[in-house]
Write a sequence for this structure.
């Protein structure tokens, strides 16, 4: 992106003054190097979002922003229903409520590393991953409705995990306002065999070692210490979310004109919050959020069972579960007035600071864990939400590194077997059903997550707590 | 598709995801080729035997949405039937199309499927006829 087109607010904040049909400015949080590497499409998309009805404050892009669908991935925007605000299927994305959950294992990484081969084999055997994989949970229609209404709470009721875990999931594991009746027959059919599956692409389950602490006090509250082993799971609402995204993107693209909404890009498909299609999407999207949380809850429990078998002294305990593709109603201050806003985060993580009432007692004094995924050869991070993040981008932070190379380029450059061997030489075990999939996900295809996280911290979006290095990775 | 052939397919870059493009002497052929391009995102077409056949009917208010609808119909069939496809036939009809796809059940070892497709999008979507008379049909698919 051309730096001269931006107004520098600080080393890590850049403003684009409103032009054309923009109703608010756009703000990009990133350092100069990240900005220069950013796709020009981020400029186009973050300014397009600023044209949508009812947007407040600004259209934001996180340090890992890249070309998305209408909204940039790494985009954050909040809409006021009192000002004709909209809800956008493109602003949530296809993988509704895709997210990350991290579990503490209660084990030293050294102990886990001794068993890394059998552990990786058992995880790969028990957790369905990759194209065409099917889960062990098959739901009939009443069960599907209950899952879509109940989310992770439903999964716990079915025996997947402990009730205490729910408080460490956004929305306490249960997204209110879900309307399963708004979820189509096709979306349900796509999900029928996909509960408890990881998916493919950049989704993964990873056993990791905490290799560095940045904030010892917060780490202590989170239960993290250097040399400990943790497990991180990255996946979303599977076929059900994908189908809901597909159907509503089309329906909103068609309906926008009827509602008098001018779309600079068809993929910005949106509808007035207070409209029939807006309400219908909200109900379906919230059901998909429940599906994603239930899915990660099931996979978390499958992971626990594997650890129990391979490393019986393990005690898996949930640190937190975040979603990074959502639209949620949140109270934020705008111009000195507290408003109920519809906050879209597309490839951006909620990052509530200390004292937020949505956080459980154990975390409220320090802030929300913000889980930033890397995979295979790259590190992951645990950050914490800050008080100042509220004034930056409605308490939001980045979600990962983002790609720097297309899948096609990566496939041409690397061979899956070579990637697996190279990582094995570094002590990282990869298990995947697809050699080509591994090549396309090679660590070198991703941007430098360290730079993204540093920029997020310097911008005040979230603060670094711990860095995690991979030990074993299950890729779809 | 290094040179302009009468029909063919290719991928074009889109950050995290991938663009699929089909070219043909008719709109229908361009749609068929776009489907080939999308399926090649998942697996090598040569490895997919055209043994089984499915049919889909799609409607849309314009060509761009019809292309997206067609590709998404295939994504749905892939997902629920656990199939991959390698051959396609499209018949353009009033306000829509009738599509046929030939393929087989997923065999992970033989097909080595790289990635599942979440959906076809209207990003970079286009259905156009060039001055050479050839039709082009393209969009980005989310993976």
């Amino acid at each position: 992106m051309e730096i001269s087109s931006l107004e520098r607010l600080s080393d890590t904040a850049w403003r684009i003054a409103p032009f054309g049909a923009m109703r608010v400015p756009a703000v990009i949080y990133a350092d100069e190097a990240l900005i220069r590497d950013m796709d020009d499409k981020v400029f186009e998309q973050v300014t397009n979002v600023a044209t949508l009805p009812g947007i407040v404050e600004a259209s934001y892009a996180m340090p890992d922003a890249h070309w998305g669908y209408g909204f940039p991935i790494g985009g954050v925007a909040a809409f006021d229903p009192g000002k004709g605000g909209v809800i956008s299927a493109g602003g949530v994305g296809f993988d509704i409520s895709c997210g990350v959950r991290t579990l503490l294992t209660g084990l030293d990484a050294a102990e886990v590393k001794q068993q890394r081969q059998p552990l990786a084999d058992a995880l790969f055997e028990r957790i369905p991953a990759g194209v065409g994989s099917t889960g062990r949970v098959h739901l009939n229609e009443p069960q599907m409705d209950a899952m879509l209404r109940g989310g992770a709470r439903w999964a716990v009721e079915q025996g997947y995990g402990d009730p205490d875990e729910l408080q460490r999931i956004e929305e306490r594991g249960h997204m209110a306002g879900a309307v399963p009746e708004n979820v189509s027959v096709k979306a349900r059919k796509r999900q029928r065999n996909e509960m408890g599956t990881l998916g493919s692409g950049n989704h993964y389950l990873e056993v990791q070692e905490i290799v560095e602490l940045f904030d010892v006090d917060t780490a202590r509250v989170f239960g993290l210490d250097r040399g400990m082993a943790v497990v991180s799971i990255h996946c979303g609402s599977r076929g059900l979310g994908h189908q809901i995204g597909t159907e509503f993107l089309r329906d909103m693209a068609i309906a926008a004109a009827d509602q008098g909404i001018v779309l600079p890009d068809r993929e910005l498909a949106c509808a007035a919050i207070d409209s029939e299609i807006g309400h219908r999407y909200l109900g379906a999207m919230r059901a998909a959020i429940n599906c994603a949380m239930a899915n990660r809850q099931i996979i978390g429990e499958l992971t626990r069972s594997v650890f129990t078998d391979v490393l019986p002294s393990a005690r898996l305990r949930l640190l937190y579960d975040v979603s990074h593709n959502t639209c949620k109603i949140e109270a934020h201050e705008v111009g000195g007035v507290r408003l109920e806003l519809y906050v879209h985060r597309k490839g951006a993580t909620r990052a509530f600071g200390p004292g937020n009432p949505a956080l459980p007692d154990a975390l409220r004094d320090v802030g929300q864990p913000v889980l930033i995924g890397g995979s295979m050869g790259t590190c992951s991070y645990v950050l914490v939400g800050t008080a100042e993040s509220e004034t930056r981008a409605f308490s939001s932070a980045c979600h990962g590194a983002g790609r720097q190379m297309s899948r096609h380029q990566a496939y041409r450059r690397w061979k899956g077997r070579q990637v697996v061997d190279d990582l094995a030489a570094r002590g990282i075990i990869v298990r995947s059903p697809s050699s080509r999939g591994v090549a396309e996900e090679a660590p070198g295809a991703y941007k430098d997550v360290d730079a993204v996280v540093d920029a997020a911290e310097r911008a005040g979006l979230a603060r670094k707590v711990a860095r995690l290095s991979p030990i074993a990775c299950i890729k779809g | 598709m290094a040179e302009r052939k009468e029909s063919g397919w290719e991928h074009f870059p889109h950050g995290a995801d991938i663009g699929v493009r089909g070219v043909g002497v008719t709109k229908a052929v361009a749609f068929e080729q776009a489907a080939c391009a999308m399926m090649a995102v998942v697996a090598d077409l040569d490895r997919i035997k055209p043994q089984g056949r499915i049919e889909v009917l799609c409607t849309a208010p314009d060509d761009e949405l019809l292309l997206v609808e067609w590709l998404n119909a295939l994504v749905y069939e892939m997902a629920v039937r656990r199939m991959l496809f390698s051959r396609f036939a499209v018949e353009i009809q009033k306000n829509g199309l009738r599509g046929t796809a030939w393929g087989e059940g997923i065999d992970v070892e033989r097909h080595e499927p790289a990635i599942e497709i979440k959906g076809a999008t209207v990003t970079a979507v286009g259905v156009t006829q060039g001055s050479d008379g050839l039709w082009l049909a393209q969009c980005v698919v989310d993976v």
